Fold this protein.
Amino acid sequence: MKAQVISFRCVLKNMFGRILSSTVNCDIVNQVHGSGLLSALAEGLQDLRAGERRSISLRADQAYGFYDPKKSFTRTREELRGADGLKIGDLVKMQDSSYRVVEIMGDTITFDGNHPFAGQDLVFEIEALMAREATPDDLIEPVEESANHLH
């Protein structure tokens, strides 16, 4: 299958129909391997045409994996340098992994390294705004998202 450049609206729902997010994704280079998208989602977007609508269902193991309680931990502010300005939802980089701040209670901070949608079966409601075959110039590596760093 050929790589495509696509722009689409996406409403992300859980399997119970609850809306988790809604976005417009512009000029995504979709190729099944190396697209920056979940591989099962990238497969579901193959050969998408402008104006087309698709509903793509992914099991938790195809999406963001199962929730792993070992990726959640609590630390005191004393144990961490640079933790004073943290708030719930912040993304923090520690030892080559990213963690979200999920709870702050007094002097303790709870971090979670699971994706926010881990453990959930998901439905991606897609509406293609634009779709075209990718050119060689389109096939570039994605840039990593920045995060706070704690030691």
